[in-house]
Structure formats: C-alpha cells, structure tokens
Design a protein that fits this description.
With 410 residues, this protein is of the alpha/beta class. It folds into three domains: 127 residues, Rossmann fold; 181 residues, Rossmann fold (3-Layer(aba) Sandwich); 84 residues, Alpha-Beta Plaits. Helices cover 30% and strands 19% of the residues. The strands form three sheets. It has a seven-stranded parallel β-sheet with strand order 8-7-6-9-10-11-12, with helices on both faces. A five-stranded parallel β-sheet has the order 2-1-3-4-5. The chain has a four-stranded antiparallel β-sheet with strand order 14-15-13-16, sandwiched between helices. Helix 1 packs parallel to helix 11. The longest helix has 21 residues. The protein is elongated. The N and C termini lie close together (10 Å). The structure holds 1,4-dihydronicotinamide adenine dinucleotide (NAI). The site of 1,4-dihydronicotinamide adenine dinucleotide (NAI) has 31 residues, from helix 5 and helix 7.
Length: 410
C-alpha cells in the first residue's frame, strides 16, 4: 500500500504534485475534525498550517503517523517533545518567504521617502497636497540592515540595485554581498543610517534591542522598519521619536501582541501618526511564498517517506544517506544513552546481515541512525531492533523495485 498523506487547511497544491511524484497517496480535508476516522487511522504524513494543533491527545488519533509537515514558518502548534517521543519528525519551511519580506521592505522604503500613504489617504479624503517637502529619492541614501541573514542579505541586493549604499550589523561575521559592508557595532549602524531595517530573530539578546536609547542614537530624520518580530522594538519609544520629529517615519509589520483572528479590531499608539505604515504581519504572506513553502515542506516529507532522511526536522537529529534502491533501509530512533550503537550493530550481525552504509546524529535526548543493510524479508531483525529497550521507533524502507521509486516506512 502506498504511504498516505493528509493535507489540511488549504495547503498550496504544489504539495500534492511533489508528494504524488513519489507515489504518495494525498488526501485533503479542511480541518482535522473533517477527516473520517478511517482516514486518520491510515494517515502516515500529516500536513498542517498554523491553525491545527497537534498535541498528545490528537496524536493518539493517528496511530500510523510517521511524519508531520508544518506548511508555515513556525512549529508552535505542534508538541515537539511528544512527536519526538513517538519518533515522528516534524518539518517546516523557515526561509521560503524570504523574497516576499525583502520586496515589502523595498516598497516600504520608497513609500516612506515619498510619504506615499499620507499623500494617498489625503486624496481619498478629498485633499490635493502637492509638495516636494521632505520627499527624497532612495538613490544615494544609506540603508542600515540589522541582521544579515536570509532576509537581510536579499534586501541588501535589492537596495543596492536601486542605488542605495548598504551597511549592516550582524553578531556573526557575514560575507558582504555586492558592495555592502559590515560595520563594527549596532551603534555605528544607528548613527549613519538614513533607513534602519530590522531582520534579526526573536531571542533573549534581541528583545527590546531597539529601545529609547538606540532610537535616540539614530540620525535625525531617519526611518525605522521592523518586519522581523514584535519584541525587538520598543514601540512606545518609537511613537515618541515620531511625534517629536526625531524620526521621519516608520513601517511596522509585527507587534508584541497580535490578534489571532482576522477582522479583529486593532488599536495602537502608533495609529494616526504621520508617515507610519502599519501592516498586519503580512511580510511573508504572498501566493509565491505559499507555493515555495508547499514545495519545500512536501520535498522534506517525501524524502523522509521514501528514503528515511530527517534533514530539516526541527524535533529530531538530522540524518540522510545517498539513495540505493537495492538496500533495506532502517531508521532507528533511540534514546541517546551509551552502548546503543554497539548493541544495534551486534543485533544486526546476529541475524547475519551486513551493514553497507550508516549515518548517525544525536541531540541530548535522542539519536537517529540510518542504515542500509542487505535486503531481507526475515522479520527477526525488526523484532530484535524493536525489542531493544532504548528504541523509540523503527522506520523501515524496503528495497525499491527497478521501475518504481515507491516505498513506505512500516
Ligand atoms: P536568519 O536566521 O536567516 O537571519 C537572522 C540574522 O540575524 C542572522 O544572520 C543572525 O546572525 C543575526 N542575528 C541574530 N541575533 C543577532 C544579534 N543579537 N545581533 C545581531 N545580529 C543577530 O533569519 P531570516 O529568515 O532572515 O528572518 C529574520 C526575521 O524575520 C526573523 O525574526 C523572522 O521571524 C522574521 N520574519 C518575519 C516575517 C513577516 O511576515 N514579517 C516573515 C519571515 C520572517
């Protein structure tokens, strides 16, 4: 029987195409509660977005579950410990919306330099106000990027293509793209930037990183953009700097507290301040990003279901081996305690099988060992490995028939 995947929450259909190319049977339901008990019983791979919670109770309804794909950035909706204890890798797609965020940043930089939203809403309210006062080209202006990772580096390329001078600060040494240069400190970046755009993650070190003190060090008349996380900027201090005219504008996509439901009411002290663009956390929300996420997560799920690769798993160690159709592949997930590997090898040797390839990775609690062994139909090896007290889960992948790549973990 081919492995079956259940996709919920309207995941982009690029996921179906990728999974089906590995002969995975794709089923769909709007929500978990819409799937029949039979479908739940057979589901080996579950694809969800942010509205489905996968906790211990839900996992009990899914006895065949082997993999979870979060078709989004975060994985907070899944109990990662519980899935790891069940030997179920959880995959996500942390970087598929990089370009969407970078493009929004470029749009915001131009809009702020031309006070575009104020001018446009003035027109909608019946006001004609033609003026060049405070309006600038972005060419020749200095863009400071805080966090030169996936998004920061993309912004750097786009901004330079539009004639900006790009400087960045990152706590790691990062190879500059194009003519960008890394500055020695956040303080330098604040002091010299006409525009500061934030692209660091939410960590204890970045929380409130841009507070009143940092804002006070920014160039007079500069712009501040935050499309990263709501915890990084003190929005009260930002509102003061905007009202006093120290900063000329801001674009904020993320907030310390965000409504969980669409069409919720929204109120904030930044509302009503001139030249402030407020958006409801849409930096990465494009159809293209959804499609990229669907491809990326489906690829990781399909690789796991057909080859045992846990590359990209957020809750288990990552292992992979090159594909070999003539081998019996075994993924042994176990508690990370001394001696398991030698007992694993001895158990396989005792049933007379040769190990032809092996990959091991561990974290503090758990290890994954991926093995290619001589093909066999003798259940003795599975029984013996399954009976080891340290075993969490055994996934096996039979040799593939010559003209088909279909294989299912059992
Ligand atoms: P990334 O992990 O690729 O890059 C982050 C960079 O920040 C790294 O180069 C890292 O070295 C640097 N960094 C971390 N801590 C730092 C510190 N204390 N000081 C200086 N540099 C530091 O992350 P990516 O993909 O570029 O995302 C950046 C942010 O954007 C994340 O917070 C992410 O959650 C957010 N994001 C927001 C979206 C939206 O819808 N608005 C969509 C996608 C991502």
């Amino acid at each position: 029987m081919p492995p079956s995947a259940l996709l919920l929450e309207g995941i982009h259909d690029a996921a179906d195409v990728r999974l089906q190319s590995d002969h995975i049977d794709v089923r769909r339901a709007p929500r978990l509660s819409d799937a029949t008990p039979d479908v739940l019983k057979e589901t080996m791979a579950m694809g969800i977005r942010s509205r489905t919670t996968l906790d211990a109770q839900t996992l009990r309804q899914l006895p065949a579950l082997s993999a979870v794909g979060c078709f989004c950035i975060g994985t907070n909706q899944v109990d990662l410990d519980c899935t790891a204890d069940a030997g179920v890798p959880v995959f996500n797609s942390p970087f598929s919306n990089t370009r969407s965020v970078a493009e929004l940043v470029m749009g915001e930089i131009i809009c702020l330099h031309r006070k575009l939203f104020d001018r446009s809403s003035g027109m909608h309210q019946g006001r004609w106000k033609k003026s060049a006062s405070g309006a600038h080209e972005i060419r020749g202006r200095t863009l400071g990027i805080l966090g030169y990772g996936h998004i920061g580096a993309q912004v750097s390329i786009l901004a330079e293509a539009m004639g900006m001078r790009v400087l960045y600060h990152d706590h790691q040494p990062k190879l500059p793209l194009g003519n960008a240069s890394q500055v020695d400190s956040l303080e330098t970046l604040l002091r010299v930037s006409d525009v500061l755009t934030i692209h660091v993650p939410d960590t204890p070190l970045t929380q409130n990183m841009i507070d009143a003190d940092s804002i006070g060090k920014m160039k007079s008349g500069a712009f501040l953009l935050n499309n990263a996380r709501g915890s990084i900027v003190d929005l009260g201090a930002l509102a003061v700097a905007l009202r006093t005219g120290q900063l000329a504008g801001a674009a904020i996509d993320v907030f310390p507290e965000e409504p969980s439901e669409n069409d919720s009411s929204f109120g904030h002290e930044l509302c009503g301040i001139d030249n402030v663009i407020l958006t409801p956390h849409i930096g990465g929300s494009t159809r293209e990003a959804q499609e990229n996420i669907a491809r990326d997560v489906a690829e990781k799920m399909a690789k796991f279901l057909t080859t045992g690769s846990t590359i990209g798993a957020v809750n288990l160690p990552e292992v992979a081996l090159r594909e070999r159709a003539d081998q019996l592949r075994i993924l042994h997930i176990h508690h990370n305690v001394p001696g398991v590997l030698s007992r694993l090898h001895a158990t396989i040797a005792q049933v007379g099988l040769n190990i032809n390839a092996e990959a091991l990775d561990s974290n503090a609690q758990r290890s994954c060992v991926l093995l290619d062994v001589d093909p066999t139909n003798d259940p003795a090896v599975f029984d013996a490995l399954g009976a080891m007290p340290e075993t969490i889960r055994l996934h096996t992948f039979p040799p593939k028939p010559a003209e088909s790549s279909s294989a299912a973990p059992v």
